[in-house]
Structure formats: structure tokens, C-alpha cells
Amino acid sequence: MRSFFSYLIPFSILFWSVVVASDYYEQLILKPLPQSTLLASFNFRSNTSLSQFEAHNFRYFPRSLGQILQHVGTRELHLRFSLGRWDAESWGARPWDGTKEGGTGVELWAWLEAETDEEADRKWRILTNALSGLFCASLNFIDETRTTRPVMSFQPEGDHPNSTLANMQLLHGVLPREVVCTENLTPFLKLLPCKGKAGISSLLDGHKLFDASWQSMAIDIRPICSDGECVLQIEQTIDMVLDIERSKRPRDNPIPRPPPGHELKCNSSKPYHSGDTCFPTDFAEGQEWALDQVFGKSIKGTCPLTDSNVPPVCVHAPHGRDIYTTAGANEIKNPNGLSRCYQIPSEGDFSMILPRMSREGEHAKTDADEIVKPDTPLLYAERSFTGHGYERGGVRTILTNPSPDTEVEFVYMESLPWFMRIYLHTLRAHLEGRSGSQKDVIEEIYYRPALDRVRGTQLELRMRIPPASTVFLTYDFEKSILRYTEYPPDANRGFDVAAAIITILPSESPDAPLARQKTSNLRTTTLLLSLPTPDFSMPYNVIIFTSTAIALAFGGLYNILIRRFVGADEGPEVISGGLKGKIIAGIAKLIGKLKGAKGKVD
User: Residue 184's closest CA among 172, 175, 193?
Assistant: First the structure.
């Protein structure tokens, strides 16, 4: 099936030559999805010539990031910040064929120019520490135990000369525990030429972005060569899936409350429908939303530095869908009838409204008139733990090929922590739907075992799944016991295991669909591993009990040794002295005089 971005190919071909030659352009693609959701994809692309980059002349390319790349000799870099889960069964194929997507948390891979592994590791540590400070993330925690060197999963996306490829080394690291938040969005916006003050980036707001059901921020830096001229390209992408009803809540009153009775959307076809009985309608009754409602604000004109030939806003919806925009916008419809783009005014606010379309009457609309049916993914994948107890466990991955006539070839990669000691001899691939053995499914295996507290486990499988088939991939592992200093503060929560990376290889058949002729990616969800956890309250109990016992014993013994005990009648009389004694003596003298004066009166 074709990805929805492939429908915009006529526009891409029209503007591709302009984009490559231009220094900067940006575009927002909106795609309504089923179940009252909206996919918003922000794409920003800047180009600079290699000669200007090497001469430290930064115009559109961010200087802060360019100096880091030059210092460590980075030839290509890919950084991902992701949060949430992509619902492939409801939302269909992933945007950008999954190439702009990362696993939950933070994921980084780069090609560094180094002659030895030690030099590459040293530059990798410098790169992660520098990016950690630039993006306010914990990338400095990507140490050797969280770093791998993929063999089959990743290939360079840029155009590199053969002399450079010989000295390039690929390193990959992931932090599945990292929580992506507004602190990561602010540095992302500062890398843009307009800094989020104008253009489509003015829509980006941390409250909306991180309230999304799924979101991903991507940065890709690679060299691109065309007609003998090479440029260094930085592409920044933000994808988010927004719940329309939740996003339309006002900022000043975001707490959900039951709507009034006259605002309820009821299904009047039910036999028990009446004035005091309401059966809520489902999401199939149509969507109604506006750009300023969903994002909380309108687009503030266009960025003055962007290419004016590239329409900044595109909507992936049938031509029969009613869309109203603010004055001054120019609509450009795609001949395929499934998308349209808008040239917006350079100044002033821009917004659009997609009203609810009537499902009744003479001109009733259907779902096909409102939403483009999502494309079926090339592969479905889900992963989970099996077994019980704190000693051993297992991992089961279910891979399904939904195509009835096309097989899928891909590379399955897992980066596991060192305390998950897998048993490779237990690896099994069970095929359902068709007859076949494990050898027919798994074509090649690359396995790099873990070393305790030195490196993690790396497992890469080259697999092939027949049409309309499901593969159950399973293996067993043993859980290690950690030192008490190696547990996080919330040790009983568990340890996050990075998502599995699946790279779908392009088909070699010339008659394959367009989506099968290029590389695509997808990632499973992360896993939460429970390890044997000691009772961390026991050391504190022991410390408190011991301290109390020592204090009681030492205090009593100390008093016995240094104090002299005498009887009350044998002790010296209290001699008044000092300020306290003088005050007491004065008071006693005053009382005596008062008593004497009273006696004389009597």
C-alpha cells in the first residue's frame, strides 16, 4: 500500500528542484485520521554548501550544532525524541514511512570519521555530552553499556565519497527511560531560522505537543549531492497525533467536564431516544475542527526566509471535503483528488476551518468524502515479555505480514541491557498461515553477546515473511542481580528495555508498489523489566536501630565514668553567684523586708 505522503509526490516533483537549490523551506501536512484524531507533520529543511560550512560561514544552518559536528568529525547524524505509541491498526502506515520515527525516549545514531574503534568511542562520548547540553537531555548517560555498532539495520542516507566511507564508523545509542518534555522542544525551535516566531513553527506549543497521543521530534543531518554540487542538509521534523476533542479544550479551563444537555451529540436512530435519554454518537459521525482550536493559535504569516514557491500548508483530505480558510489564501489542488495545499499571506494570521459535514438528507456525506482511508502498513509488530518470577523470562515478538500476495524482507534488531543474558539456542521462529521452517524465515543472524557492566547484547536478524503470514519470534533470557548502587531511585518500577528496530528492505521486483521500492522503518514499544530488588528500607532500619542502641549504651556508660555521685546532704551548699544568684538573693531580701514591715504594723 502507498503511504499517504506518496500522494504528495506530484507536489514534491514540482518543488524538488526548487527545494534542493533553496537554502530553507518549511511545510505543514495535516491528515485527519479515524477516531477523531489528526496527524500534523511539521517539516523544516535548511541547506548550506560544504565550502561555506567548512569555512564556518553559518547562515541558515545553526551554528551551535555545526560547531559540534565539526569538532568531532561527524559526517551524518540522526537524533530522535519520541513519546507515546503509534496505533497502526487504527491510524495505518506511519508518516514518512517510519524513517523520522524513533523508539520511546531518546535515540541517536551517527557516522563518525575515525580510523580506530578507540578514536570513534572517544568522539562518540564528546558528541553525546555536547548534544546533552544543547538539547537539555540526558544524552551524556549513553555510555558503552548503551552503545552498539549496528551491522545490517542502518545505512547512510547521505551522499558520501568512497574515500570517506572507508573511515566512517556507525554508533547507535538509546535511552528508553528519558522523558521528552518542553525542555527539549525549546532548543529544537532555536535551531530554526525564524525561532518559532513566524511561519508554521508559530503553531508549536509544548502544552499541545506533549498532550498528543503520539509525538516524535527528529533531526537529520546529511550531505546531499546533485549535479556535481554538494550541500549539507539539516532536516527537522515534528509529527504528532492530536485528539481533536481534547485539543479543543481551552487553555484557561483544560479540566474535562460533562457538556450541557443541549450540546450532547446523540444518535437519534435509537428506539429509546428521547428528550431525557441520549445514546452518544461514535466518531464515525464526522469531525469538526479549526486550526486555531486544535493548536490554540493561528499561523503568524510566513517565515520571511522560506522559499515562497513551496506551499507552507497542505491537507490530506478528499476534494469533496469542505475547508474554509482566512482571506488571502490560495488553494492548489492535487490532481489525484486526495490532497490540496495553500499559499498563505506573508503577513497576518492564517487559520482554516473544517466544518461538520451532514450525514443525512439529499446531499449526505460518507466517511470517504471526509477522510482518506489510512494505508495498510507493510508489517505489524508487537513485543511482550513471557514467563514469571525474578530468575528467568522470555521475549515474544509477533510479526504479521498483511499483504495477500507480497512477501516482506526486513532486519530485526534488538539492543538489550547487559543484565538480560539471553540464551541464543532458545531462539525460535514459528510460522503461522503457511508451511515453512525456521530456516525459511531467518536468513542471517548477527549476535554480539553482552559483557557484565561493559556492553549490552546486540541481536540482528535478517528475516523474510511470506504473504498473509504471522511469525512468532521467541527466546529466553536470565535476569542478573545488580549491586545495590546500580538500582535507580524507583527500583520497584523496573528497568526500561529499548524498542526493537525493524528496517523493511526495498523490494527487488520492478513491479513492486511505490512504498515497497524504498526503505521503511518501524519500532515496537518499549518493555518494562522487573529484576530482583532488595529491600532498601532494611539498611535504614538497621542504621536507626544501631544508632539508638549505641546512643543509649554510650550515654549511660559515659555518665557512669565521668560523673561523681554523692548524697544530697553531703553535697556543698549552693553558693549564689553570677547574675542569676544576685537576682535570687535580691528577691529573697525584698521578701524579707516586706515580711518585717508587716510584722511592725501588726
Answer: 175
